[in-house]
Every structure is written in C-alpha cells, then in structure tokens.
Structure prediction request, 230 residues.
Amino acid sequence: MAKNKRLNAARAKVDNERLYEVAEAVALVKDNAKAKFDETIEIALSLGIDPRHADQMVRGVVALPHGTGKSVRIGVFARGPKADEARAAGAEVVGAEDLAEQVQAGQIDFDRCIATPDMMGLVGRLGKILGPRGLMPNPRLGTVTMDVKGAVDAAKSGQVEYRAEKSGIVHAGVGKASFTADQLRDNVKALIDAVQKARPTGAKGTYMKKGSLSSTMGPGVRLDVSNLEG
Prediction:
C-alpha cells in the first residue's frame, strides 16, 4: 500500500501530455526516486530504425562522464600474460577453456565480457549463450582486443554499451538517484550524443522519435526529442 501511495504521488507530479527538457526531466525523476535503495536512472530512446536490417543496426559503447554508479563484474577470455594482465586490472573472472565450460554450464558470473583475438575461436562457440545476453565480445565495441588492461579499465570506469532492441528502442542506465542533477544531465547528454552519432546509413526520416527518463521504481518522464536531434 505504501509503495502504491508513493508511486501514485510520483505520477501526480508528471504531466504525461508534456515533453520535458533534459534538465527538467532529470530534476523530476530525481525528486520522484523515493525508494529505500539508490535507484538506477534509465533512459529509453525510440528510434526510427528497423534493426532486422543490417544497415539499420544501432550499437556502440560510450564512456559516461560520471560513470554509472554500478559495480561491474568483468569476465575475460585470455591465456598466459594477457590473463595475468586481466587479473591485475581487476577482472573478476579470467580463463580460457575452463571459463568456456562454466559458461556452457550456465555459470555466467560477469556483466561484461572481453576476449583477446586468439580466443575468439573458443568464444565463438558460445555465441548462442553470450549473444542473447549482450555479452558477446565484439572488436567494434573494443571488447576483442590485445589491450586487455585498457578494456577492463574502460568497463570499470563507467563505459556503457547500448544496443537497439528488435522494436528499435535503446535502453541504458545513466547513473543513480544519488548523483547530482548536473552529473545525471551530463551522462544523459553523453548517451544521447553517442546514439545520434551512431545513426546508421539505412535510417530514413525521423531518427530520434521518442524518449523518456525514469528511475527504477518511478514513472517515466517524456523527453522533448526535438531538442535532442542534430
């Protein structure tokens, strides 16, 4: 009952017919984040694309200026000195065939996956498991690399991967309710800018169609996407 009262009170503050500027939306979402835990602030962007076509896929990574506020567990497929480099950089799970066996057994104890190029023959066999979870290493995302330390550091420092779903919607966490309004605004704008720059060649017409900002337990606040495009 208390949760329903809190949510109803939060909804009452949001004008569902209005499109909010980013700064206004951030302030409203922060004010409505009243849960007993530090809620994640999330953005959803509806894009004018059809991801089923290869020339309309939107996917990439962006380093948020103020990080995500979330602890990220890193899994690295590597051998020898590169495995040692991964452990020294702070990767929680490191291995080769042994790690592949764990993944095949459903033991996926990491949020991001990195691999050295020589490991992709092994990792490729795990595509049906890692792919649907968005964990498959990809050279374009910097997660297939010999610079293991750099990749682990980037993931730990607040790098966010975004990917359009089948419906053309990109979801991403952009911080925590405990962040300042300025920090959240900077992170939101960084994510939006990255998605804009990732506009695929096959996208025609309006690219940024709709957007909203919300907290884990709060209502969505519609964004004025006319001021986001360009």
